[in-house]
Amino acid sequence: MFIAKRLIVPISLVLLVVGLMALLAVVGMTVWLGDRTNEHFEQVVRLRDVRVAAVELRSAVQSAEASQRGLLLTGNEIYLSPYATAKTSANRQLDSLKRNLGDDPQFGAVLQRLGVLVVDKFAEMDKTIELKNDRKDSEALAITNTNRGKALMDEVNLFVSGIVRAMDNRLTSGVAQQKTNATNLRFASIVAAFLIVLVVGAVTATLLRYTRELTQARDEVASLNVSLEDRVKRRTEALARANEEMQRFTHLVSHDIRAPLISIVGFSEELSDSAKELAQLLEKSGTAVTVPNLQQVQRITNEEMPEAISYIRKSTSKMEMLLNAVLLLSRDGRREPRPEAIDLEHMVLANTSAIQHQILDADGRIDTQLDIPTIVTDRLSLEQVLGNLLDNAVKYRAKERPLRLKVSSKMLPDDQVAIEVADNGRGVAQQDLGRIFELFRRVGKLDQTGDGVGLAYARAVVRNLGGDITATSELDKGTTFRIVLPRELARHPATDSVPA
Question: Quick check: pTM over 0.70?
Answer without folding.
Answer: no
